[in-house]
Amino acid sequence: MRLLVTGGAGFIGSNFVHFVLRHTDYDVTVLDKLTYAGNLDSLRGLPGARFRFVRGDIADAALVEELVGSVDAVVHYAAESHNDNSLHDPRPFLETNIIGTYTLIEAARRHGTRFHHISTDEVYGDLALEDAERFTEQTPYNPSSPYSSTKAGSDLLVRAWVRSFGLQATISNCSNNYGPYQHVEKFIPRQITNVIDGVRPKLYGEGRNVRDWIHADDHSSAVLAILERGRIGQTYLIGADGEKDNRSVVELILKEMGQAPDAYEKVVDRPGHDLRYAIDSTKLRTELGWRPRYGDFEAGLAATVQWYRDHEAWWRPQKSATEARYQEQGQ
Ligand code: NAD
Ligand code: DAU
């Protein structure tokens, strides 16, 4: 199979490309604009005969037409992905997440190309903190931020193209990923690299918000299962039962890095901050037999801490500009 992976120089896309080249005999072409979030160093060492990189925009219809026409399937990761950025400048989120997705699905329907759309649990809004309820494929859409509302819009475009035009598509909505190659703007890498720099981790508000953590490799194995065996037109939720509040995650990072458990700082909260995400992945597990491999969050987190210790050359160039942006926002 020949795959086109959009956003393959980003965090989850690059993990997926490594995963696919390791576990299948597929050929992979990455289409990535290399925004501030894309990094070619995340794609180093891949087998040249099976891997090709194209720098370009998913909203560039002529380029997309040519690339989509030359593959068997598209796995669409490219997005503006960070909630905090979307609260300060929403426009790129509309251009990439909405217009970019529209451009890709138009090409996929013209060519009859299999399409897998990567999305997020944030399209469902949030859950109460003190509740056992979890998101399912039937939960109504209720996004909170410019980021999550553009992802919700892109999901709805894909659903409409399936119904009206017979697009051969599936959708997955996954919870918060952690692992190697994640940009230092995101919660876990920001705190690990802060501690390496002798700076206290920054917790928004009281740190009570809950996220449902999954290792990026488990996300990749789920996407591959859906691409290969998922039913066309279906949505699958991906999660690994990894609920943790933010303060507990910071405390685990501090413990792993030999710091006192209270060596963090509370900073200005995110406006509209979603309280809790939690995924019920029963459909994916029963229908496709998928299981996560990284059951132990603490062990996965320890490996991630070690990865950032070992790969300072990868993250260092982005660190000071990222922290300068946060500082402007009091975060
Ligand atoms: P990321 O920000 O790390 O990477 C995004 C990549 O897309 C970058 O390489 C960037 O250069 C590229 N890109 C952005 N705009 C582009 C454009 N117009 N044309 C081509 N390439 C463009 O994001 P991520 O965290 O890896 O997320 C990837 C996907 O997974 C997104 O669709 C996101 O909504 C979804 N997702 C993320 C998570 C998470 O925890 N990070 C969880 C569930 C779903
Ligand atoms: O749920 C899936 C989503 O997870 C993806 O769709 C998004 O692309 C991805 O960025 C992520 O969104 P979050 O907003 O949950 O992730 P973030 O890493 O920005 O923040 C995680 C939690 O940590 C959130 O409750 C905010 C908090 N936080 C974040 C930062 C950067 C802090 O307390 N301090 C921080 O410095």
TrEMBL record:
<dbReference type="GO" id="GO:0009225">
    <property type="term" value="P:nucleotide-sugar metabolic process"/>
</dbReference>
<dbReference type="InterPro" id="IPR036291">
    <property type="entry name" value="NAD(P)-bd_dom_sf"/>
</dbReference>
<dbReference type="GO" id="GO:0008460">
    <property type="term" value="F:dTDP-glucose 4,6-dehydratase activity"/>
</dbReference>
<keyword id="KW-0456">Lyase</keyword>
<protein>
    <recommendedName>
        <fullName>dTDP-glucose 4,6-dehydratase</fullName>
        <ecNumber>4.2.1.46</ecNumber>
    </recommendedName>
</protein>
<dbReference type="InterPro" id="IPR016040">
    <property type="entry name" value="NAD(P)-bd_dom"/>
</dbReference>
<dbReference type="InterPro" id="IPR005888">
    <property type="entry name" value="dTDP_Gluc_deHydtase"/>
</dbReference>
<dbReference type="Pfam" id="PF16363">
    <property type="entry name" value="GDP_Man_Dehyd"/>
</dbReference>
<comment type="similarity">
    <text>Belongs to the NAD(P)-dependent epimerase/dehydratase family. dTDP-glucose dehydratase subfamily.</text>
</comment>
<feature type="domain" description="NAD(P)-binding">
    <location>
        <begin position="4"/>
        <end position="299"/>
    </location>
</feature>
<keyword id="KW-0520">NAD</keyword>
